[in-house]
């Protein structure tokens, strides 16, 4: 126990010392090279002078190149990733690297096996914007789709918010077949292999979606009205920092869409967006500069405070008080798109990023609520807490589970869209969101007052357990993540260890424990839709698995003690296992190394182990 105590103190002190003056924690939300490539291209599009930033971004992109000369979306991905490699190459080629020998292997890779056409739809859209891919090879949703009424069988708001804010600018750009011709366009075009398959947009989309667009909508007047609607949609969702919905990639696309609509490069909206990206999303890393897809400040602040409170830091400690003040200032007061179909509910949730005011989510709301519960006796906190809980309960889907952002999106018709599926276009119930919401309701509220809500959530989890005993997690990697959230949620609402669902979940977790005592799962899992073993254990996934097991065992088991020993070793060593991406955004394409996670999740688990078993 002494070693555990020492590690709890060490991690707690490290976190306390990293708090910023405004009470927040600002860790890097580190992903692949996509956003770095987009930033390099944006600098060229807008004609900006940013030599130092460009140099740092180029350094990081090259540092992520693998030994085969290509780029991956996660460390153990075999071969190369077509999208990551295309994005890296086009950004570097337009950044005066046409003759750089480091790109020779990548050129050969892209020329083989039709890799350009294997890239994801967004990457191919970027190529089309720069004139390197035919627009008519891409799936197209007509902009008249914007105007379909929300009471109809299909409409634009069937897409979840983060999908809408990427789709809307793409639809506007594609409608005009807009092409940006940068200097060196001919040389870059000669370097890049040509698309060899003629991918006209899907006949299924014509058959399944076009019939819902009334014939009169396809007139010239309506077309212009749809374009105006799309422009207004974008401008109405710009956050105070100038970005679109606080996402780098959607902001990049918005800027291009505005240029397609005739905005000058120096328009105030474009200038503010560019400055917002550089000032709020750029972070300096040992291998160069990185533009984050989003900043995770609210999420990291809530998680860190929660971890410190679990570790026994007094709620009156100045660190906790400053952090709570920061969180209270970030509680939402505005109605966002989440309210369009749920007008009776008042705002009260929290979002992921520092400047987020209109896109709250369930995870950030529950983590903020856990922190505020420690000071519930304060009247201001009671008021904020009650508003947030009402909002949280209102977000439960009809099927009983919880989404991340918006209630009851994710419709069957979205399966006709290419490549990505309803888990991206919509926001269906997920085990990670449902489990953590139940964990909050069970451990931090008198949940008997919401027994019907809790029972629906419990039943959803039981019904959506995989045959092997695991659960799929959407926003982390993957089955360890989902199983941890589901088991800790079910434990919090009183489901007993001898319940068959719990027995299956525990058995599955123990069955995948590594020989070294830890747990490790590959990013391949969410592509294969089945657990894929990682060749090593990670501190975060080990902490998740242990937390789930601890929640059901009154005394430490052999598996728990072996896991704790390995977790302590990993926390001492801080090797490459520390950096493995365990956050997930888009299967096969976008994974996240949260710089906060190797601190907060092990701290939470060690603290719970210590409190439960110290006697």
From TrEMBL:
Gene Ontology cellular-component terms listed: lipid droplet
Family: Belongs to the terpene cyclase/mutase family.
Entries under Gene3D superfamilies matching the protein: 1.50.10.20
Keywords of this entry: Isomerase, Repeat
GO molecular function: intramolecular transferase activity
Pfam families linked: SQHop_cyclase_C, SQHop_cyclase_N
Highest taxon, organism lineage: Bacteria
Pathway note: Secondary metabolite biosynthesis; hopanoid biosynthesis
Presence of the UniProt keyword DNA damage in the record: no
One BP annotation, GO: triterpenoid biosynthetic process
Lineage per the UniProt record: Bacteria, Bacillati, Bacillota, Bacilli, Bacillales
Residue intervals of the Squalene cyclase C-terminal domain: 296-610
Native organism: Shimazuella alba
Domain annotation Squalene cyclase N-terminal: ranges: 8-275
InterPro entries attached to this UniProt entry: SQ_cyclase_C, SQ_cyclase_N, Squalene_cyclase, Terpene_synthase_CS, Terpenoid_cyclase/PrenylTrfase
The keyword Flavoprotein belongs to this UniProt entry's keyword annotation: no
Protein name from the UniProt record: Squalene--hopene cyclase
